[in-house]
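On clarity, I found the account of how folds are encoded harder to follow than it need be. An entry of this sort, consisting of the sequence and the corresponding backbone structure tokens, reads as follows:
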Amino acid sequence: MADYYQNGIITTLHNLSNRPVAELERELLQFSQHRPLGLVLPSLYSELQIDALPKIIEELVQVPYLSQIVVGLDRADRDEYVQALKFFDQLPQPHRVLWHDGPRLRALDAQLQAKGLAPDQPGKGRNVWYCFGYVQATRRVEAVALHDCDILTYDRSLLARLIYPVANPRFSYEFAKGYYARVAGGTLNGRVTRLLVTPLIRALKKVVPGSDYLAFLDSFRYPLAGEFSFRLDVLKDLRIPSDWGLEIGVLAEMQRNYATNRLCQVDIADVYDHKHQALSADDATTGLSRMSIDITKAMIRKLATQGVVFSPGVLRTIKATYYRIALDFIDTYRNDAMINGLTLDIHREEEAVELFAENIIKAGNHFLDNPMETPFVPSWNRVLAAIPDVFEQLVAAVEADHQELGA
């Protein structure tokens, strides 16, 4: 059972009683009569072939309160898009599949690229950005949740708890971030959060004392969780990174745009597991190595916008401070694992910390060497200002794909 302790400056909504999901869904169904609710699912075509997504769909079929499900489909050719349409047609809720690699959405993307208004690299950030655009364009919902399609331990209570804070009309939250314990296979997972993000935040707080941004980040129990929920209006001004900095970038936007009493985090699962990325110590362009660089860049950029000046000397100080704090955290996690009868590979933990320490310098040097870089995808408000009918074009492209190739 969770504790009810409130730490930091963000409200934490705990799981204190394991409420039956049917009870939560009855309330959400009532809320949805006044505030229609939706779900965004960013997916690779390959995820249709593994165990997690079919189980997720089995659970979603039973959800009674959703007015719209939007699936962002990446890395799919024409035949695979047709297969995806058949796969998602199991859903009884109104839904659409955005075929990001299809000629119509590619043409729209090229139009936006020509004006510097679209993500410049493929990935989850690009997928999510177009899905958020489509949700705004259709205006069928007033609040929307997002979660990944590789959750191996999924049940529909996760979605119910995730969307509840922005669905309940008696709450004033505009945004909710999911959190959970990453424990599976008899060990602690979530290495990037445990061994990079938390110790790096603590290190930066020593080097940059008094930062509101760092106090904000340090209030989240799982800042890299890929599960969010939003009121629809939040999406208008949201600027997100298109790389692995997506989750950290979304938090930065929430801190920039909203008072903390409009934000919360919510316990959405007792057990959570998904596919694991390789450390990729020899390749900084993939796996946890790339993820650690992108996340560190996102944090450095945010601090720079608040007046923090970075230099090679400052980066070395941050690395040294991080390294000591991270090594101390390994002892903490080992002890936490032992008292719970879990195992923890200390050698692998220290290998990860050594790599992350090196990547802090790489991320910092990238920032110093690219002062004109614009890492954020423009907000949809800006896109609308430049291309007023972009939403009509987006909806028309999705509908034409569905009509031409749907069963």
About this structure: The beta strands are 11-13, 37-44, 66-74, 95-99, 143-146, 175-180, 183-184, 187-188, 228-231, 263-269.
